[in-house]
Amino acid sequence: MEHPVFSDVRTLFNLKITKAEPFQRESGDPILSFFISTQKQGEYFLKELQSHSLRDGMDRIYEQFSTLAPQGYRLILPIAYDSGRYIFKSDGKLFLLFKRESIRHFETSEMSHPRLLEILQSFHRDISEFDLPAQGYRTYESWLNRGPLLLKREYGEGLPFVTQFEEFMANRFAQLGLAKGNIHWDVHQYNFCFDEKGSLAILDLDLAQQGDYACDLIRATNMYLRLEGGSEHLENESLQVLMDSIPDGKVPLTKSDLKLLLCRTVMIAPSQWENSQQRRKECVEYLQSLEKFVS
Q: Could you list the residue range(s) of the whole structural domain that residue 158 is in?
């Protein structure tokens, strides 16, 4: 039996659908997504909006992004079915429709770390005047604090790196006074991709908001590191590039600050590890390696 959403897509977007194939997300999230083929109208990608992305005024957010003419990168945006309207409801769920594109996940061999940060800075400048919401419940500070809580819940007290990170958050983070503005927020290798022409394409702007510029830039750096294999690939030169890319806050960032902030991104949530003694042992050893990294 056909899902009711296809009838709504036909009506709203005037498409003659010939085939629809479910798309399985790599994360395994039970989110409805489909590749859609049409009769002489091209191919499309239909996705359900995740509950954590929903907020008031999202059509207005997409409309603002549609006005950009970026240089050095491009945006992959949903299709409007009416003037300034992108999100539609079907069978109690909210959806967005995109033109289907051939994209591949970010590869470090195709773009240097300095160039990646340069493009992200350009993106920040391009959206600096947008009217994006401030998400009081989703801040960089709250996200940073959540990492140690997850690890302590699984492994208990006494991990030196976790203690060190908590002390940093309690005594140092607020002093930094990180510069704020409009950011992407959800920077990772599945949202920063390359299109078939080799251009960097930025996806999933659902969570764009006001926040700390450092959040995007540090996550982008860590995306680069994880693809390369881990923190041992971060040399002093890379740290300096990152430091130079983050706008000045109340006090200058140190390399020690950056190392700790980078390590939060690679803290492993316990749910990502198999429930076995060997995997638990590997996680503890991993945290011990982070302790050495920030020393």
A: 108-294
**65 and 124 co-located in one domain:** no
Strand partners, 103: 195
When divided into structural domains, the chain yields a total of 2
Q: Are residues 78 and 156 in the same domain?
A: no
Residue 191: CB atoms within 10 A of its CB come to 21
Kindly report the number of other CB atoms within 10 A of residue 9's CB atom. 24
Distance of CA 168 to the CA centre of its chain: 24
DSSP codes of every residue in 163-184: HHHHHHHHHTHHHH---EEEE-
Half-sphere exposure of residue 87: CA atoms within 13 angstroms, side-chain side = 18
How many other β-carbons are positioned within 10 Å of the β-carbon of residue 44?
Answer: 20
Assigned token pair, 214: 């450092």
Look up the CATH number of the domain holding residue 199: 3.90.1200
Q: List pLDDT tens digits, range 18-45.
A: 999 998 766 556 678 999 999 999 999 9
